[in-house]
Specification:
By secondary structure, this protein is mostly helical. It has a domain of 30 residues.
Length: 50
């Protein structure tokens, strides 16, 4: 805690997989920026699972 860094605990425990959804209030809000955000989030989450 003093170093300000996270420490992994219970590393042998694996939780359930859950869906992660990106929801926009309408098609007009699905901009190129939102698509880029979706792609970056997908890439980031896939890296976490490796």
């Amino acid at each position: 805690m003093k170093t300000g860094k996270l420490v992994s605990i219970l590393t042998e425990y694996v939780g359930e997989s859950v869906a992660l959804n990106l929801i926009c209030p309408g098609r007009e809000n699905v901009t190129p920026v939102m698509l880029l955000l979706r792609d970056k989030l997908r890439q980031y989450c896939q890296q976490l699972l490796m």
